[in-house]
Write a structure and sequence with these properties.
Length: 121
Amino acid sequence: MESANRSHDPLVGAAGMNNKLSEDAFTDMVIQLAHLYGWKVCHFRPAKTARGYRTALQGDKGAPDIIAARNGRKVFAELKVGKNKPTADQEDWLHHLGADAYVWYPEDWEQIVQVFSEGNE
C-alpha cells in the first residue's frame, strides 16, 4: 500500500500524483472526500482466502465499489485505476442503478469533488 497517498489531501486530488496510484489508495481518497462533505459511505473490501481474494456478498456479482448517501441522495461508483475497465457485471449494475452511478478514475477527480460537494455551498 502507498502510505504517502493515504495521507494525501482529498481536496487536492489526483493531479500530479504518482501514476502508479493503487485502487486501494484511490478508494481511500474517495471515501475521505465523501466523509469531508458529510456522506455516509460503504465499501465492500475483499479478504484473502485459501482460494485467493473474495468479497463476501450474497446476490449478484459486480456491485459498485462505493455506495454513498446523504440527505436522501445516493451515489454509486465503480473505482478504477490505470487501464483497468469495469467488468460486464459491473457495467450491468451501474446501468440498473441509473443517473447517480459512475465509473471513476483518478483523472476524474474534479467531477468526484463536484458530485460530493453539491448542496454544500
